Amino acid sequence: MKYKRILLKLSGEALMGDQQYGIDSNRLIQYAQEIKDVARLGVEVAVVIGGGNIFRGVQAEQVGLDRVQGDYMGMLATVINSMALQSALEKLGVYTRLLSGINIQQVCEPYIRRRAVRHLEKGRVVIFGAGTGNPYFTTDSAASLRAIEIEADVVLKGTRVDGIYSADPEKDPNAVFYRNISFKDVFEKGLNVMDMTAFTLCKENGLPIIVFDMNTAGNLKRLVDGEQVGTLVTMDDIAESFRETVDQLQEKESQQKPDKK
């Protein structure tokens, strides 16, 4: 396995499937099966899920609610999604633990770093609910923070698209796909990978990010097996070295091809 410990970030909207709101049971089961397939290989899996399919904190001000209150409502939405994923995983025979950034002792454990790491070491899938437990921080920031705290090898951001593009591929057919890109290039090109706080946390701690299509069956397993899936975001020197290696391989392949007569 290329990665021993991963942090998988899923958006709440992804759980909606084709619905307009809530949780699509088929999508939930699909994600649970994907996670199970990876966990049984011996990979330590931690998960952070957003709550946008139920409520977003930034929506609060639009309807006249206090932003801080709205953010806490959003945290509770992530706990609902986390509980749903936990239940789906356990139905598949996967041992799990749900740790929350805010105290809800009746349904989940409080987040304690050492406890989270111990659960991972015992082979349990650890789900982090309620974001960071603080308002004004997104679940992307929570994913980056938790990944750093548990010393994950990589942040895997599961999305509806197959990686990072120069523009939204669903709106711009001429959008350019990036197979590998540096943190610096993402900043300079203004690409939307994560919110700035989350992205900067990963950059400053040298934590690579892979953006990939979670809805394609088998992608998660292929990633941990070492296959190149989605877009890899790394430090400048690593990204440059990777590009040079790819160029060398392509040049070697072209030289080995017989000339057409």
Automatic annotation (TrEMBL):
| Identification of the protein by name | Uridylate kinase
GO BP term, example: UDP biosynthetic process
Q: How is its activity regulated?
A: Inhibited by UTP.
Q: State the pathway, as annotated in the record.
A: Pyrimidine metabolism; CTP biosynthesis via de novo pathway; UDP from UMP (UMPK route): step 1/1
Q: Which InterPro entries match?
A: AceGlu_kinase-like_sf, Asp/Glu/Uridylate_kinase, Uridylate_kinase, Uridylate_kinase_bac
Domain Aspartate/glutamate/uridylate kinase intervals: 4-213
Which locations, inside or outside the cell, does it occupy? Cytoplasm
Q: Which domain of life is it from?
A: Bacteria
Annotated residues that bind ATP are located at K9, L10, S11, G12, G52, R56, T159, Y165, D168
Q: Which UniProt keywords apply?
A: ATP-binding, Cytoplasm, Kinase, Nucleotide-binding, Pyrimidine biosynthesis, Transferase
What's an example of a GO molecular-function annotation for this chain? ATP binding
Could you say which residues bind UMP here? G51, D71, T132, G133, N134, P135, Y136, F137, T138, T139
This chain's function reads: Catalyzes the reversible phosphorylation of UMP to UDP.
The record lists the catalysed reaction(s) as:
UMP + ATP = UDP + ADP
Q: What is its EC number?
A: 2.7.4.22
Q: Which family does it belong to?
A: Belongs to the UMP kinase family.
Q: Name one GO cellular component term.
A: cytoplasm
Please describe the quaternary structure of this protein.
Answer: Homohexamer.
